[in-house]
Amino acid sequence: MTTVLFRGHMYRDSRIKRTTILKRNDMIEIVDGYEGEAIYPVYRGTLIPAPINGHTHIGDSFIQEEPPEDLMSSVGPGGFKHRYLSTVSKSALVHGMKGALSAALKSGTHRIYDFREGGLEGTAAIRKAASGLNIDLKILGRPATREEALQMVNMVSGFGMSAISDHNFDFLLALSEMAYGSGKIFSIHFSERTREDIGMLLQLKPSLIVHGLKMTQEDIAAVQKNGIPLCITPRSNYLYGLNADYSRFYRNGLKVMIGTDNGFATTQDTLSELSFLYFIQRNFSRIDPAVLLKSAVYDPVAGETENSRYLLFDNAYLSEYQIVTKGYAIRKRLLQIT
Known about the structure:
alpha/beta; globular
C-alpha cells in the first residue's frame, strides 16, 4: 500500500525542489517531482527542516522595560539585565522562560541553544521551564567554579561562556577540557564589541562561537580553517548599534548559524531573525536567500545534515526568497514525517 504523505515544495540539498514523499510498506521514500498526482496527499505546501536558534539568553525574557542603547550598560556586569536578574523571583524567572520557549515553538523554531547564566540554579530553572514542552533544548550552562562545573556537566549539553576577557583563562581551558572529556559542547562569545585574541580562542577549541563582529580577515580565516561554527544575532547587534556586513562570514566559508540573543530584546523566532538579516544585508552586499535559509535549518554543532522535525507551510508553495522574507508571517506547523 502506498500513501502520499506530502506533495509540494521541499528544502533538500540546500534548495527548494518540487517533491513527493511516499510511504510504501512502512518505508518513507522522497522523490523528485509530483508523483501520484491523482492521490490527495496528507500534507501539501512547503516543507523545510525545522529552524534552529543557535544562541539565546531566555532567562531575561521576564523583563518588560526598554533596555539602554549601549551594549555594556544593557547586558554588561552590573548593568540593566543583571540588576533585574538579581531581584527576580524564581517563579517569575521560570514563567518568563516557559513563555519564551512556547513562543519559539509556535514560531516554528524547534531547537534552541540557550546560554544559561546563573550556575546550577539557572540550569534548574530552565529545565523546569522546559518541562512538558516538545522542544529540543540545548542548555549551555555557565558555572562560576570548577566545582560547580563538575556538578553541572551531566545536567547540561555543555558550557556557554561570556567573552574571553570576562573569565580567568585557565578556568576556560579547564571547562573546555571538561566539556570535551564528557562529550559536551564548549561555546563562547567572541569579538562582539572589541577584537579578542584569536590565538587564545583556538586554544579553547570551541564547538561554537557567537557574534564575531570584530574579527579581522585573518581571524575569520583561522575560524574557517578550524571548522568552528559561528552564530550571528543581527537584531540584537542592530539594537546596540553594532552594524556589520555579515556576507564576509559567508564569502569566507564559515559555518553560520542564526540566533536571537537576549529574550528581553527580541523574540526567539529564527525566521523573523532571518528576514531582518536579509533586509539589512541589502545595505552592504546581498546574500542569496538559499544560503541564508541553510543557516537557519542546518546544525553544524550537532554534526547533522538535517533535523528530525520539519516545518510545514500549509498550502503555501514558497521559494527560498519567500521563506526568508515572509516565512515568519505565514501559517505553519511543526511535524514529523513518519
